[in-house]
Prior knowledge:
Layout: E1 5-16, E2 19-30, E3 34-38, H1 45-52, E4 60-65, E5 68-69, H2 74-80, E6 81-84, H3 96-106, H4 111-124, H5 140-152, E7 158-162, H6 170-185, E8 189-193, H7 197-203, E9 206-211, E10 214-219, H8 221-227, H9 236-243
Parallel strand pairs: 3-8, 3-9, 6-7, 7-8
Antiparallel strand pairs: 1-2, 1-4, 4-5, 9-10
Amino acid sequence: MDDAAALVVESLTKVFRQQTAVDHISFRVARxxxxxxxxxxxxxxxxxxxxxxxxxxxxxxxxxxxxxxLSRDVLxxxxxxxVLTEDLALYERLTAxxxxxxxxxxxxxxxxxxxxxxxxxxxxxxxxxxRSKLVVDFSLGMRKKLALACTLVHNPRLIFLDEPLNxxxxxSGRVVMDLLQRLARRGVTLFFTSHVLDVVERxxxxxxxxxxxxxxxQGTLEEIRAQRELGGDASLEDVFLKLVDADVHxxxxxxxx
Length: 257
């Protein structure tokens, strides 16, 4: 077992009705890395994350997540990770405070510690004044911040973040980005997906690009530039478009003069 790795993915595969969504992908993520997982819509990103977090059973392959093999002990995996999904599955008839306390207690935190962490997270994410409001009345940004609080409350060592900044205002977005960078410096591993490539370029130490279910590149931006013989000033967006062979040229719409 690779003790230096937070995540080792071994030929992971998912087939839906004879359609291969994820095709024998393998990669590793070292502990304490801010790891970007990129791809166009439909490339297999969300399917991969659902498999790695125990929400979807692989067709083939396996993974070792923070020392636990996914196929043998999925509950141990779930105890050690935090997951922020794009669909934000929240209990809408709880208040923000109730929801966060519930999440903390479900992870086994003692009552006093659950209360302390709830208070700190509500303050940190500017939700303290909304603590008694039902989640059903929250804006998208407030829901995203509450879901992030629930992701962090048990102090996981590996965190999966699917579009964590969507819908969050610029002030809160900077607070969240600064927090994520501090967590990475303290040895927490962050598995980050986003379509906002300039954010990925600023935050991530390393990226992997998936296209049509297969990993087409992995490494630092500098390493991928060199592999693809791109200039040293090529942005992550330039690299990404090259890797997925994107056709971005379109004729004008007929009614636009």
